[in-house]
Sequence to fold (270 residues):
Amino acid sequence: MSTPFDFSGKTVFIAGGTSGINLGVAHAFAKAGAKLAVISRKQDKVDAAVAALKTHGGEAVGFAVDVRDYAAVEAAFKETQSRLGAIDVLISGAAGNFPSPALGISPNGFKSVVDIDLLGTFHVLRSAYPYLNKPGASIVNISAPQAYIPMEFQMHVCAAKAGVDMVTRVAAMEWAAAGVRINSVTPGPIDGTEGMNRLAPNEATRKLVAESVPLGHFGSTDDIANACLWLSSPYARYVTGVVLPVDGGWSLGGLSVSSAGMKKAFTAAG
Ligand code: COA
Ligand code: NAP
Fold:
């Protein structure tokens, strides 16, 4: 599908933009004419993403950075501004997840997910702020339905992503006067991603998950990319502080999204 959005000359920075949903979002912005900067921990993933993004004909840079390292994140923004210009669009999507009952999560396991998803989001937003092209910059946090649906085996992720959405709302209020909009997108189950491989690792659980979506199927990375394009475009200029589910109706709360449903899925997964 070709995009109706034009981001020619704009600089887009994507934290966690080297695989899965966020890389799909990066490709969508690159196709729409944007210059791309991506960060994630692994140099090989960064290099591969940068090479793939350049095939759309525009500029792309990447840095191997752990969002838990505030100084390294800040350095990536500084370098991006000097190479690509001030940041027009920021997507914050670095995250970690593993399914486990609460009693199977060690303190360090809980801390790791909160440090990547929640503290990492704060690091990204706070260090980006001086490098944003203001007024007019747009930020999208990639959150998850776990932010507002309590799910068994996901206590750490539920806690972290609920925090991410609150960060979205508070930043929307504090930064509106500077002309910075910020919203969350909460993807439903997205096919072919690491997140779904972890939460639905076999055909039985995939079927359970797909059947629990009112629209009846998994989403694609394009579905999330299209929401990010719209939210970051002038067509959404009056939209800020919103938590937008892009999930085929999943978060409306069918049986399988409920605690019992998730328990059944993870138990089936072994
Ligand atoms: N069940 C229970 N605990 C687990 C676990 C699992 N499946 N996987 C990891 N942990 C625990 C580890 O045992 C460790 O705790 P400990 O020190 O008390 O033993 C803690 O989590 C940190 O693990 P480590 O591998 O050192 O962390 P990391 O910082 O290298 O990686 C993770 C972070 C654990 C989130 C890892 O899964 C990751 O890198 N994920 C990124 C990719 C991803 O999750 N994609 C989907 C996004 S939705
Ligand atoms: P993914 O491919 O594993 O994407 C995660 C990205 O974050 C990778 O680029 C990863 O690269 C990076 N990352 C992880 N830890 C990091 C850290 N400490 N510092 C910097 N970068 C880090 O998974 P995905 O499934 O596409 O998920 C993408 C986003 O969508 C996440 O925010 C997730 O919570 C959300 N989401 C996904 C689904 C789904 O169905 N998949 C549903 C709801 C929400 P490195 O390994 O190189 O660091």
Remarks:
- The mean pLDDT is 94.
- The first strand starts at residue 11 and ends at 15.
